[in-house]
RNA sequence: GCCUUCGUAGCUCAAUGGAUAGAGUACUGGUCUUCGGAACCAGUGAUGGGGGUUCGAUUCCCUCCGGAGGCACCA
């Protein structure tokens, strides 16, 4: 049997379409929503208002006709029409209970559509080697991983790509300083310290580049040497780069992130340079010794792809990267997520790349997410004012241990849940004001709250190792209806989150579900109940448990059984 | 200067053009001899200003004000 994401919505839509046809309207996807106010039903439609003028009938008359012609069925228990032209639907108790059984049967695949969708390359993370990852990178890792999981759930095949800057002026600035004290770095006993050492060197080099003319010339020369991988510069580059590459593998593992491939700027610069040079005169033009793309004809700005020294800039490297990506994977869509300060930059890259590779037209997409800010303003590793992502995780873990006295392993999971959830709960487009205290928040709308709720479900279920069978329910379950009416929405929520690349929709739903469960928990004892009442409550607890786990997993959050 | 983007309770965030704008936090007051209190309930409190489109606008359009970002060899 073909599995839909949401059975209930699919069926309801089908009935509504039939009813609309009898009224004289063909609508392939009639608008259905979950009313904000629960007393307005499980679903509501405003199509009567939409079609009133076309049908030359009053919205209320159309609403009545829809109700009149709505097929009699098991799914819908009541239909209500409301001024000025809403039709509200209540899903029947048996249909909701059937869905409850479906959740229990399908377990961690409940709501996952059995369809094959697109091949998507998703690039996220993108920290530079020779620098410490900061909180913006942490956001990118977390957001990208969640997006990958959500898109995968919806039947897409995802190729996960990381792209790291391991060459270019920033590396030269770092190595300028490293060269003078490489032994100090070699003596450090762990990778994190070595990368911190590189970060310090980068900051020193950066300062010198701006304030010391001789240093600037030396760094520019060093940059050339690194590109041609010459002499001592090449050797130091190899050595320091390997520290960093190894460190990042460790960091990714710690965050629970996996990649299909890591790309490096040192690999994209040659193909990028070649492609740009080949298209001089058609896509690119020479100007003041550099090779540029003129954006103005397209309403964009002009950018340099190869500088006057003949070195490819970030722009050319990105074109090179795109050429590598399409060789590696037969993609239908290439998604790149970065901070939104690069929004305009990416419009230019996409336009230029589409001209170079016409077969990719419409397949390149950039997703800009908000800047992570402190109360003092934007964070930049260039100015040295950073929140080190790696240490942040440790700091939060220490705080969790101090507050709750758990073991380090589960404390680390809880702290990652706290950080991930605090990043994913709001719309990605907007800037995020980072507040350490709020991220550690132990109560309220937080990761730990969701984990705690999950732990509660597990605790109850562990005392009921076998699930009874659920047939019909004759008793009053009004106290259980709140949670029952939330559960079946999970598939729809994930679908919407995937469509709009918005994990926060899922985060919001899971929080709602957890809150509803805690209310249920408060007023409906499970283990003290008997008979049908106990059976229904165990089923509900089981369903909440499964959905919380599935949903949190789609956010990249691992659950714990105890905390 | 030009372009992009965001302005929702004191603070941090929700709300595919829908009905009475929801939460958390903070503050005030409650529940429970816990199926794990990192819980639950109640109260106070908000769409930056002005126009427009619409049966209906936090959402779309215009304008003003305010924040953030970008605009040639950095990434």
Count of separate DSSP helical elements: 21
Question: Which fold name is given in CATH as the topology of the largest domain?
Answer: Rossmann fold
Tell me the number of strands: 14
The largest sheet, given as strand count, sense and whether it forms a barrel, is: 5 strands, parallel
CATH class of the largest domain equals Alpha Beta
Can you offer a commentary on this structure?
It is a single chain. The chain is an alpha/beta fold. It has 3 domains: 7-91, Gyrase A, domain 2 (2-Layer Sandwich); 124-378, HUPs (Rossmann fold, 3-Layer(aba) Sandwich), CATH 3.40.50.620; 442-554, Isoleucyl-tRNA Synthetase, Domain 1 (Orthogonal Bundle), CATH 1.10.730. The protein contains 21 helices and 14 strands. It has a 5-stranded parallel beta sheet with strand order 6-5-4-10-11, with helices on both faces. The longest helix is centred in the middle third of the chain and has 25 residues, at 231-255. It is globular and about 85 Å long. The structure holds one RNA strand of 75 nucleotides.
């Amino acid at each position: 049997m073909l599995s839909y994401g949401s059975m209930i919505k699919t069926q309801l839509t089908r009935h509504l379409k039939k009813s609309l046809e009898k009224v004289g309207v063909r609508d392939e996807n009639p608008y259905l929503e979950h009313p904000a106010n629960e007393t307005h039903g499980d679903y509501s439609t405003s199509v009567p208002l939409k079609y009133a003028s076309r049908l030359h009938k009053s919205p209320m008359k159309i609403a009545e006709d829809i109700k009149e012609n709505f097929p009699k069925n098991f799914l819908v228990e009541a239909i209500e029409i409301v001024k000025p032209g809403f039709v509200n639907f209540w899903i029947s108790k048996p249909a909701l209970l059937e869905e409850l059984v479906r959740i229990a049967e399908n377990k961690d695949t409940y709501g996952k559509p059995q369809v094959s969708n697109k091949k998507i390359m998703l690039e996220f993370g993108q920290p530079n080697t020779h620098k410490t990852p900061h909180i913006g990178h942490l956001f990118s890792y977390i957001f990208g991983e969640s997006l990958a999981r959500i898109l995968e759930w919806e039947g897409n095949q995802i190729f996960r790509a990381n792209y790291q800057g391991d060459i270019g002026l920033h590396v030269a600035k770092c190595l300028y300083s490293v060269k003078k004290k490489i032994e100090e770095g070699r003596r450090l006993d762990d990778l994190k310290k070595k990368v911190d050492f590189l970060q310090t060197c980068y900051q020193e080099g950066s300062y010198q580049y701006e304030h010391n003319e001789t240093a600037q010339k030396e760094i520019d020369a060093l940059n050339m040497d690194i590109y041609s991988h010459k002499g001592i510069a090449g050797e130091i580059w190899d050595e320091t780069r390997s520290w960093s590459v190894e460190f990042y593998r460790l960091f990714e593992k710690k965050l629970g992130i996996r990649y299909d491939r890591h790309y490096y700027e040192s690999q994209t610069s040659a193909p990028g340079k070649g492609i740009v040079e080949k298209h001089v005169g058609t896509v690119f033009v020479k100007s003041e010794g550099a090779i540029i793309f003129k954006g103005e004809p397209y309403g964009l700005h002009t950018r340099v792809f190869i500088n006057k020294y003949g070195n490819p800039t970030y722009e050319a490297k990105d074109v090179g990267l795109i050429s590598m990506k399409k060789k590696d994977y037969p993609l239908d869509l290439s998604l790149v997520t970065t901070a939104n300060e690069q929004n305009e930059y990416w419009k230019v890259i996409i336009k230029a790349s589409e001209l170079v590779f016409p077969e990719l037209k419409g397949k390149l997409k950039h997703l800009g997410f908000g800047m992570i800010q402190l109360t003092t303003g934007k964070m930049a590793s260039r100015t040295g004012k950073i929140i080190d992502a790696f240490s942040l995780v440790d700091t939060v873990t220490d705080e969790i241990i101090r507050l709750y006295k758990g073991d380090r392993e589960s404390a680390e999971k809880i702290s990652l849940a706290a950080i991930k959830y605090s990043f994913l709960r709001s719309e990605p487009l907007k800037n995020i004001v980072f507040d350490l205290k709020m991220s550690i928040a132990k109560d309220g709308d937080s990761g730990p709250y969701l984990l705690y709720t999950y732990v509660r479900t597990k605790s109850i279920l562990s005392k009921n190792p076998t699930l009874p069978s659920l047939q019909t329910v004759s008793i009053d379950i009004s106290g259980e209806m709140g949670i029952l009416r939330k559960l079946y929405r999970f598939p729809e929520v994930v679908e919407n989150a995937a469509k709009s690349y918005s994990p926060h929709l899922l985060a919001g739903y899971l929080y709602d579900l957890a809150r509803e469960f805690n209310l249920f928990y408060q007023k409906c004892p499970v283990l003290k109940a008997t008979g049908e009442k106990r059976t229904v409550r165990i089923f509900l607890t089981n369903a909440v448990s499964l959905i919380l786990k599935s949903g949190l997993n789609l956010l990249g959050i691992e659950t714990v059984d105890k905390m």
